[in-house]
Amino acid sequence: MKTLLTFGALALAVSATTISADAKGCLTGAAAGAVAGHYAGHHGVIGAITGCYAGHKLAKYRQQQWRNEKAPPASPPSTVPPQ
Given its phi and psi angles, is residue 34 left (phi above 0), alpha (psi -120 to 50 degrees) or beta? Predict the structure, then answer.
């Protein structure tokens, strides 16, 4: 357990200084995946990698949904008949 916390703190320190803004969701996903992987047979690293991937995809999905909600509605069709 002490090793897991040490590596987690080290990974957090390194990633906080090197991750760009495009990596949204990776840290939270990696943390959740590492904990889940640790309890599922001591596979914390694999869990962190897949959690980072899943967290990043989820963040991109949520951002796209937010953009779609904020998009202006399409203009209604014209009611003036053609001449």
Answer: alpha
Nearest one of 63, 57, 65, 49 to 15, comparing CA atoms: 49
**Cβ atoms of residues 31 and 9 within 8 Å:** no
Q: Please enumerate in sequence order all residues whose Cβ is within 8 A of that of 62, keeping only pairs 6 or more positions apart, or say none.
A: none
Amino acid at 48: A
- Cα–Cα distances in angstroms (integers) from residue 83 to residues 1, 80, in the given order: 78, 9
pTM above 0.85, yes or no: no
pLDDT at 16 > cutoff 60: no
| Residue 26: CA count within 13 A, CB half-sphere | 13
User: φ, ψ for residue 43 (rounded to 5)?
Assistant: -115, 50
